[in-house]
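Problem statement: downstream parser choked on a complex file, so we are re-checking the raw output for the biotinyl-5-AMP run. The parser issue turned out to be on our end (a line-ending mismatch), but while we're here, posting the original submission so the record is complete.
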Amino acid sequence: MSPDPQPHAASTDRLPLDTARIREAMAQHGMGELGITTSTGSTNDDLVQRAYSGNLAHLSVESTEHQQAGHGRLGRGWETPARSSLAISVFMAPDPGFDSAGLPWLSMLCATAMVQTLQEDADVAAGIKWPNDVVAGGSKLCGVLAQLVATPNGPAVVVGAGLNVSQGRDELPVATAASLRTLGATTLDRTALFTGYLRRVAALYTSFSTVHGDASAPLPGLGASLHGESLRAVIARNMVSIGHAVDAHLPDGTTLHGIAEDLGDDGALLIRDTAGTLHRVLAADVFHLRRSDGTYA
Ligand code: BT5
């Protein structure tokens, strides 16, 4: 194991979030309301509850300083000590012209916004592990969970992202986890990371909405860096799974072994097995196979 660059989490690293700064940034990006609690069970649950009223503004955000019962996928949990991390849930209420086929892409859209934030603002070589983990150096530092919500105004989506920021190694719940601290990131400023993430979520969502949720259409208005790429292409470019050997543990209990070749039009991971057959995988836990030097196979 490599030495922890900043082994002890000093309490001074655990400053509260600057709510005024986050609110100001959200107003600048034309986002909705902000709710930040000192402690809660799950920010996704809280935002889903607010969404049921039908009065929640598009791109409203719920966060907390201490999430005590965070959800992962398939009934799993998400564990983080108080003020050590970010738990950010965003409410997305697509307008009537948005194709429902675009809804499943919103979790990967948020994972992409997180990857961009980590690469550009924290100097961490982050990527997406299909379907929506954010990893760096083979370890997971952020998990994303999307929930479909039937609001009185139609279907909407809450996407929650949990980012490990200042946890020391002994504070991470599993050996496969990392934090910005353990990765030696250039910043542990949670408020700056929060606003950087929201800015990119708002920009990507607005562009994706302009093309009515078509993941294959070139995204407009995002500047030269994206070269008119589609959302599918931007996600695929940031996905570390693609081009590598993977084991996909499928819901029926079987394991598919092969090379992840690409991302399908519907967000499926396209895996070619050893016999040469291409499989479209829509639900699975994917494990990347490593060489003995730690690089992906
Ligand atoms: C996820 O699920 O990775 C989605 C996590 C989403 C958390 C956010 S926080 C804001 C919002 N509110 C919520 O209630 N949830 C969202 P999954 O792929 O199922 O991974 C869960 C697994 O990750 C667990 O079973 C652990 O093995 C591992 N895990 C738990 N806490 C972790 C952490 N802090 N860092 C890395 N891995 C963790």
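For whoever reads this later: The helical segments are 19-28, 43-52, 106-121, 190-210, 231-237.
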